[in-house]
């Protein structure tokens, strides 16, 4: 009897994580990460819960991403890089507009349609950056964009003043920062309010017209 018991194989039910190819696992992690970051924000998203939702072990997660921070960066870094590149690329067109005396063209370099395309192409990433990034290096995204807008605006207007194309007083740095903050915040409100593409198009065009007219008035253009 003892011999028979010793030879018995006792099967115990084990809950196993679903498995698949590397790409399948990667996509499940991405889907769960996007969902949980959007629902809970970065700080309140628990890595173990994320892995459970994706049906993977934490060990499997670390074969795809170095950390929770790394996964968050995967979603948002392309949108950050794109807007930084847009500002860098606007330097020369802004200088050319000023050098030719076409000051009003400064407000057409990043026009409403271009803004709309950027926002809708990066909608989820922007939502993460604007409302879910506390606890990450991306929490200053809005202020970073405002600073870039402020810097390029002041440099362009200062050059226009030096070239004699602008007679009005240029706003001070604090004033320009507040004006740019109001503009950028209004533009990104379209993301926070989950506007449809159609409604966003109307909203962005209205915002751009409003702030452009105000800028012309302040600068005497």
Secondary structure layout:
Blueprint: H1 2-7, H2 22-40, H3 47-54, H4 58-61, H5 68-99, H6 112-121, H7 123-131, H8 141-162, H9 173-192, H10 197-219
Q: Which structural class do you get from the secondary structure elements?
A: mainly alpha
Radius of gyration: 25 Å
Q: How far is the N terminus from the C terminus?
A: 102 Å
- Tell me the number of helical segments per DSSP (H or I, 4 or more residues long): 10
The shape is: elongated
**Into which percentage range does the β-strand content fall?**
under 5%
Helix content: 55-70%
The sequence of SSEs as H and E is HHHHHHHHHH
* Total strands: 0
What does this structure look like?
The chain is mostly helical. The protein has two domains: 15-61, Homeodomain-like (Arc Repressor Mutant, subunit A, Orthogonal Bundle), CATH 1.10.10; 75-219. 69% of the residues lie in helices and 0% in strands. It contains ten helices and no strands. It has helices at 2-7, 22-40, 47-54, 58-61, 68-99, 112-121, 123-131, 141-162, 173-192, 197-219. α5 packs across α7 (123-131). Mean pLDDT is 88; it is low at 1-18.
Fill in the keyword field for this structure.
221 residues; mainly alpha; Arc Repressor Mutant, subunit A; 2 domains; elongated; disordered N terminus
Compact summary:
With 221 residues, the protein is mainly α. The protein has helices at 2-7, 22-40, 47-54, 58-61, 68-99, 112-121, 123-131, 141-162, 173-192, 197-219.
